[in-house]
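Researcher: I'd like a structural prediction for the single chain below. Treat it as a standalone chain; there are no partners to consider.
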Amino acid sequence: MSLMITDECINCDVCEPECPNNAISQGEEIYQIDPNLCTQCVGHYDEPQCQQVCPVDCIPLDPAHPETQEQLHAKYLQISGKA
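Model: Treating it as a single chain, here is the predicted structure.
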């Protein structure tokens, strides 16, 4: 699954630079995650970096975008040009 940012986001700006896929951007009110680019850091790190740095713990799994580890890895390969 890709991740999502909930409305508890305080716009602290720490998650955006941590994303290796540039999936996080400033939305109209809070940051948002592009599910087409989010791989939960599969291929880059062992754990999602945005979740690690978020001070308010507002980045859960996005139930609207279910994906297996294999699908996340395939997306990583495509995004990184290693496919």
